[in-house]
Task: structure prediction
Amino acid sequence: MNLHSLKPAEGSVKKEKRIARGQGSGRGGTSTKGHKGAQSRTGYSRSVGFEGGQMPLQRRIPKFGFKNPTRIEYVGINLDRLQEFVDKTKATEITTASLIEANVIKKTQIVKILGRGELTSKVDVKVNAFTKTAKAAIEKAGGTAEVI
Result:
């Protein structure tokens, strides 16, 4: 085998369709576009979802649900995850800034501490929100839970 003798596998390369190259090509005349109508003309572009005049799917199906524009989307961090964070960083104070720095949350996210797991370290937590059980658990461990 040499570089000059390399060929693609049999049947892997198809011949290109040479459209609009005269009647002898078999694809001359209308060039596979049919007769007349918008789709045969240059510059035609069908709008997204157009189904040939039939009522499109996105209009046939009814609207449902409700998106609350004032909803606050919290990122939940449980007490066990908070304990892991304290063990890893040896921090005595946890703020949103320290969580962002440690890549636990993103800059734009709002944090809520949730009550799953246990917190054994005394730690001061300053974030956006707490559940009642989480706040009680932090205070039981000797720390403070402050809403910012």
